[in-house]
Each structure stands twice: as structure tokens, then as C-alpha cells.
Design goal:
The complex is a heterodimer of chains A (532) and B (198).
Chain A lengths: L1 H8 L9 H4 L7 H36 L8 H20 L18 H4 L3 H28 L12 H32 L11 E2 L2 E2 L8 H35 L6 H14 L15 H29 L8 H18 L2 H4 L1 H7 L3 H31 L5 H27 L21 H30 L61
Antiparallel strand pairs in A: 1-2
Chain B lengths: L16 H30 L4 H6 L4 H26 L3 H31 L8 H28 L5 H4 L1 H31 L1
Helix pairs in contact in B: 1-5, 1-7, 3-4, 3-7, 4-5, 5-7
The chains are: A mainly alpha (532), B mainly alpha (198).
Chain lengths: 532, 198
């Protein structure tokens, strides 16, 4: 990504340090730029956020938060991990093949993707990654449904567990159509079928030697049927983490717990019937686009309910501004910006001029970068003591947070300006050849410098992460005075079995600052009779 | 500590872990084949009038009918093998599971003859969109048959030792395998009319 930003800020100048070893003159080649773009999306989503948010946090903290010893199917868990590993190796290895990595965007639209080199490995890698997600999410659902500790009723579950449950349902039901689509595209590339190739297709002035009769739109439908729920796969675990951190650090029960749960379940259902709002440019009829615009507007309601509940939870709390809380607090406005800028994209009249511009890039990056990634950081800082037995350093944590917040906005805010000026995404030169882009081109440099600085700031995090493992302040079982079950286990939890004894649950997940009690938090395991 | 509800049912959900797991897996399988079926509908709508029907004339309906019967038989014997375990008759289980496995092999052999007959007439997936979706759907279904056969073989021969130590757990596993096998059968019940008859 940083190499791409160099090319965008200083088109056709040699890339420093590494350029001279890789390309003639040291200039990033257009096809390599395309590869990097496609693989950035793929790697970040399928190898980065999903494995971290669902694979890692889900796997580690769902059993802990529901008070059980392990996932329901340990062997399946391992299969899922190795399937992910193989998929990841294939994806990364594709960079080093003579053909290079896939370069048709992470959306892999045909017909382009049927002809571009590198795509075959991408598809095979995707099949492994999809399998991994499927097995992992089946495991998470079974674990939550079957292994809840005695007394842990549905409405006593921490919101994080609810978020993981809905996310896993989305993965189970939305990923297989993409697997089907990947199989079809693989057939097109390897066996010469024409699932996605229309009759009479001409490429580079020549008729394509295929029978035709297929439709590129078929891919778009199958792809977005996955990829829209995928958006919620990326954001729901993040919301779950933010909810845990906010409840804990405001020392207050989360506001509107039940409305959060219902909104999340509703969000899950709705996410299956909004996919075609990514396809307003395909010339679908007015009826179809009216339907998808309506569903898109409806799906924004539960998101707003969730965000509002988080904001209201802050009201009247005695907030502790520690590092996890700062990241969780920053999530709220960042996700807010990302969500609100999405509304114009959900209406076809305003989507058509904005489609495929940097505005879109700015919109979804606000959701997943300062949104989801900040939430993941909040989760890492919050649960680090549970995983290692030591707290992360607060000073370094703040040194990580503030610059990250500034540079994140430095990267993505200008994208809205460029997008509104009409600069398309995926341009190798960042729009330099277009006269309408001239006024906003200077922003490319701002964004690129922000990106590099953001990269440098992450070193603080890495240093903190490694340093605290050995030298961090010792944390006991429950360093944050939290109520949920993972804090009953020792830190780190027992390798086989998590807890020392059987867990029994007697109350809801967020009993903070209950009037009349001696402490401002009541763990879920505390029996009812001690209430006075 | 052991993972709870691997064999016995959880009282409030009425399920053991593997049964819930296989139902979720089948849900995802429905979405997988659902995606491909909708691709079939999409391509059929996009093809010239009657072309799909005409291209489908190449297929061998009698062989496919035999195959349908073979698969239905295998589903019946699969249930019987599970029932034998429940009635504590291990040798009958061996017999019925063996017959199921044999049916699966028979299905693939017939499918092999169908495929080679097509290739002999120079009909390939790239011939037209009907053949493309035909080979994709039946090929993927065939892979599911092979997957099922591997598991069946395991429980028929090397894995059946489990019966001596944990009979109830073993019977549950056969039930779960049966659910999967019925699903594979059901997919064929849908494939047969849309590919061969329509």
C-alpha cells in the first residue's frame, strides 16, 4: 500500500529503497499497481480483518465469555486454521509467480478477470479461505448455542457474543454463493466455459474464442450476495468489542442492551437483501433499484440504533480514558462518518456520479480502517492482560492512539474531496492525466505522507506489544474491574479448560454501578443472595 | 473437564453438538447449490428460446433414471444401517453400510460412462452454457459423493472399532453421516429433472 501511495503522490518517479531492485528504472509498473490494489483488498479483508475479528477474537473470547472450556469442535477448529493457512500461502505466493498476483480488483469482475493472469491462484486461494471461514463460523455458532454455562440465558450474553453469533450466521449463509461463483470462474479460466462471457465479446480488437451465452452480471450478483453481508462481518465483531470496552470504562450498564441485540439480528437478516445497491451502474430497472434503495435505507436504521446506544451509554458515566477506551471512543465518530457518507451511495441518483470514485474508497475505509481496525486495537489493548497476564504500557498506548487518529483522517478525509471532484479509483497515476483532477491532485501528497506516518506510528504499537509481554505491569485476574466471565479465569487462562472450576451464571452481563452495592461492578458469577 | 453435549443432548436446545453442526453445514451447502441453481436459471433465461431444452437432448435419460434409483436405494440402506445400530445389531449395520457404499460406487461408475460418452462425441463443458452448467453441477455433486464415500468407508471398516467402546457416540456419528448423505441424494433429486427432463 505504501508503495502504491508513492506512485499516487509522485507519479512515475522511482520508488525509493526498493524500486531499483524490483523494476526497471525503479518505477512501479501499472500492472503491478493493479496487482497491489487487488491484493490489498483481498489480504486486508480475507486474511486480515476476518481472521483477526472472527478467527482470533471469536475463537479466544467466545468460549471464555460464555464460561466454557473450549470450542465445540476442536479438530474442526484446527482444520479451519490450516485451511486458512494454505489459502494465505497461496495468496501470498501468487506474487512470486511469473504471472504475478491477481490484478482485477478484489471484486474480480469478469470478463476482465477471466483473461488477466494470476487470477487462477486467487480463485484457488479463495476456495480455501472460504472453506476456513465456513468451518470456523459453524464452530462458533455451535459453541454459543450448546456450550453456554449453566444460567447463561440468551439475554445475559455479552453483546460481543451476540455480534459473533450473527456474524457467523452471515458467514455460513453468504460465503457459499461466492464459493459457487469462484468455481464457475475457475471453470471459465481452466476448462473454457462461458459462464461470465457474453456472446460476441471482443478483447483487444479480436473476437474471443468462446461460445459465449454467459453474463458478467451473474458474477456481480453472486459476488455481492456475499460481499454485502461481508461488510457486516467486518463491522459487527468490531461493534461487539467496542460495546465491551465502553460498558467497562463508563462503569455503567450498556444503554438499551435488548435493542442492541434485536438491532443486530435485524441487521443480519436485512444484509441479505441489499446487495444490488453495489450494482446501480448495471442499468437495472427502476423497480429493482427502488427495492434495493428502500432496503438499503432500512438497513441503516439498526446501525443507527447500535451507534446511538453506544453514545447514550457515555451519558452520565464516570469515564476512564485509558487506551482501549480511547480507541473505542474514536470508533464512534469514525464509524459515524463512514456510515453517513454511505447514504448517498445507497440511493441510485446520487450513486451514479459517485460510483467508482475516491468517494467510495473514503466511505468504506472510514468504516473498516478507523472503524473496525480501531475497534480491533481497542480489543487488543483491553484483552491483552487476559492473554498475557500483563497490561500494555499506557503512555506508549496513547502515543500510538493520537497520531493514528490524526493520520487515519489525513488519509481518508481528502478522498471525499477528490471523489466529489470526480477522480476515479484504481488510476495508476492518481488522476494526473485528467484535467478535472488538477485542482485536487495536491491532496495525493497529503494522503501519502499521512499513510507513511501512520505506518511508522504502528511501530510504537509493535514495540509496546513485545515490550509489555515481558516487562508490562502485572495484571491480576480482573485488572479492569469487569463483570463478564472471561475475567473470572486466571490470566492467562488455563491452557486446557480455561477456568479452574465450573462456571455458574447468576446475572446479566453489564451490572456496573448498581446503587446500594459496595463495589461498582458485580461479576456475572456472583450469586443473587449477596445483592445487599 | 470434557466438552459437554458431544453425545447427550443439551436439555434446552434438544440437540447434541454434532447434529447442530451438520445442520449448519447443510444450510451452507444449500446456499452453495442454491447459488449454482440460480446461475442455471440466469443462464437459461439468457439463452435463446428453447436452446437449453435442445442442448439437454444430448443427455442419457435412462442412465440417469437408473442412477436416481441407485441413490434412493442408498439413502434407504443408510437409514437401515443407523437403525441396526440403534437395535444393537452390529453385523446388520456392516451389511447395510456396505450396500450403501456399493450404491455410491455404482452411481459413480454410471456417471463415468455418461461423461465418457459425452467426451467421445466431443461434447465438453465449453460446448455451450448448458453443458457448462451440467458438468459443473454434476461434477460438484460427484465430489460430494466421493467425500461421503470416504467417510462411509472409514465408519464401515477402520472406524467401526468405536462401536465397542462408545456405542452411542458411534450411532450418533452414523446419524450425522446419514443426514449428509440424504442431502447429497436430495441435490440429485433436484438435478435430475432440471438437467435431464426440462
Amino acid at each position: 500500500m505504501m508503495v502504491m501511495r508513492w506512485q499516487l503522490a509522485y507519479p512515475e518517479t522511482p520508488v525509493p529503497f526498493i524500486g531499483e531492485f524490483l523494476w526497471e528504472n525503479g518505477i512501479l509498473l501499472p500492472e503491478v499497481y493493479n496487482s497491489l490494489g487487488a491484493m490489498h483488498g483481498t489480504i486486508m479483508i480475507f486474511l486480515g480483518v476476518v481472521p483477526l475479528a472472527v478467527g482470533a477474537f471469536g475463537n479466544y473470547f467466545v468460549p471464555l465469555q460464555i464460561g466454557t472450556i473450549d470450542m465445540a469442535f476442536p479438530k474442526l477448529n484446527m482444520t479451519s486454521y490450516w485451511s486458512y493457512f494454505v489459502g494465505g500461502v497461496i495468496m501470498v505466493a501468487s506474487f512470486f509467480t511469473p504471472e504475478g498476483a491477481a490484478r482485477s480488483g478484489w471484486t474480480s469482475y469478469p470478463p476482465l478477470s477471466v483473461f488477466e493472469p494470476g487470477q487462477t491462484l486467487w480463485l484457488i486461494g479463495m476456495v480455501f479461505l472460504i472453506t476456513s471461514s465456513l468451518l470456523g463460523s459453524i464452530n462458533i455458532i455451535v459453541t454459543i448455542v450448546q456450550l453456554r454455562a449453566p444460567g447463561l440465558k440468551w439475554m445475559r450474553l455479552p453483546f460481543f457474543v451476540w455480534a459473533q453469533l450473527v456474524t457467523s450466521f452471515l458467514l455460513v449463509l453468504a460465503f457459499p454463493p461466492l464459493e459457487a461463483a469462484a468455481v464457475l470462474q475457475l471453470m471459465d479460466r481452466v476448462v473454457g466455459t462461458s459462464f461470465f462471457l457474453p456472446t460476441g465479446l471482443v478483447v483487444s480488437g479480436e473476437m474471443v474464442a468462446a461460445t459465449g451465452g454467459g453474463s458478467p452480471l451473474l458474477w456481480q450478483h453472486l459476488f455481492w450476495f456475499l460481499a454485502h453481508p461481508e461488510v457486516y462481518v467486518l463491522i459487527l465483531p468490531a461493534m461487539g468489542i467496542v460495546c465491551e470496552v465502553i460498558a467497562n470504562n463508563t462503569r455503567k450498564p450498556i444503554w438499551g442492551y435488548k435493542s442492541l441485540v434485536y438491532a443486530t439480528v435485524f441487521l443480519g437478516f436485512m444484509s441479505f437483501i441489499v446487495w444490488a445497491h453495489h450494482m446501480f451502474m448495471t442499468g437495472m430497472g427502476a423497480t429493482m433499484s427502488a427495492f434495493f434503495q428502500t432496503t438499503t435505507m432500512i438497513i441503516s436504521i439498526p446501525s443507527v440504533v447500535i451507534l446511538t446506544a453506544f453514545f447514550l451509554s457515555l451519558w452520565g458515566g464516570s469515564i476512564r480514558f485509558n487506551t482501549p477506551m480511547l480507541f473505542a471512543l474514536a470508533f464512534l465518530p469514525m464509524f459515524g462518518i463512514g456510515g453517513l457518507t454511505g447514504l448517498p451511495l445507497g440511493l441510485s441518483a446520487s450513486d451514479i456520479p459517485l460510483h467508482d470514485t475516491y468517494y467510495v474508497i473514503g466511505h468504506f475505509h472510514y468504516v473498516v480502517a478507523p472503524g473496525t481496525i480501531f475497534a480491533l486495537f481497542a480489543g487488543i489493548y483491553y484483552w491483552y492482560p487476559k492473554m498475557t497476564g500483563r497490561k500494555m504500557n499506557e503512555t506508549l498506548g496513547k502515543l500510538h492512539f493520537w497520531p493514528s487518529l490524526i493520520f487515519m483522517n489525513g488519509i481518508f478525509m481528502p478522498m471525499f474531496i477528490q471523489g466529489l471532484a470526480g477522480i476515479s479509483r484504481r488510476l495508476w497515476d492518481g488522476g494526473a492525466i485528467y484535467s478535472h483532477a488538477a485542482d485536487t491532485l495536491w491532496l495525493n501528497e497529503v494522503m501519502s505522507v499521512s499513510a507513511w506516518l501512520l505506518g511508522i506510528v504502528q511501530l510504537v504499537f509493535i514495540v509496546n506489544f513485545i515490550y509489555s509481554m515481558k516487562k508490562g505491569e502485572k495484571a491480576g485476574r480482573n485488572p479492569w474491574d469487569a463483570t463478564t466471565l472471561e475475567w473470572v479465569a486466571p490470566s492467562p487462562p488455563i491452557a486446557h479448560g480455561n477456568f479452574e472450576s465450573e462456571i455458574e451464571v447468576h446475572r446479566g452481563a453489564y451490572e456496573y454501578s448498581v446503587p446500594g452495592r459496595t463495589r461498582d461492578f458485580t461479576p456475572q458469577t456472583e450469586p443473587k443472595k449477596s445483592d445487599n | 473437564m470434557e466438552i459437554p453435549y458431544t453425545v447427550e443432548e443439551r436439555p434446552d436446545t434438544g440437540l447434541n453438538n454434532s447434529k447442530l453442526g451438520i445442520w449448519l453445514f447443510l444450510a451452507s451447502e444449500i446456499m452453495l447449490f442454491g447459488g449454482l441453481f440460480s446461475a442455471y436459471v440466469f443462464l437459461r433465461m439468457g439463452a435463446p428460446d428453447g436452446a437449453f431444452h435442445e442442448w439437454g437432448q444430448e443427455l442419457n435419460i435412462p442412465l440417469a433414471t437408473v442412477n436416481t434409483l441407485v441413490l434412493i436405494t442408498s439413502s434407504v440402506t443408510m437409514v437401515m444401517s443407523w437403525a441396526s445400530l440403534k437395535m444393537n445389531e452390529f453385523s446388520k449395520y456392516k451389511l447395510y453400510m456396505g450396500v450403501t457404499l456399493l450404491c455410491a460406487v455404482g452411481f459413480l461408475v454410471i456417471k463415468y460412462f455418461e461423461y465418457t460418452a459425452k467426451f467421445d462425441h466431443h461434447i465438453y463443458p465449453s460446448t455451450n452454457t448448458f453443458m457448462a452448467i451440467y458438468f459443473t453441477l454434476t461434477g460438484l455433486h460427484g465430489l460430494h459423493i466421493i467425500g461421503g464415500m470416504i467417510v462411509m468407508f472409514y465408519f464401515w471398516f477402520p472406524g467401526s472399532k468405536m462401536w465397542q467402546t462408545e456405542p452411542e457416540h458411534f450411532a450418533n456419528r452414523i446419524e450425522v453421516l446419514g443426514l449428509y448423505w440424504h442431502f447429497v441424494d436430495l441435490v440429485w433429486i433436484f438435478l435430475f429433472p432440471i438437467l435431464y427432463l426440462l
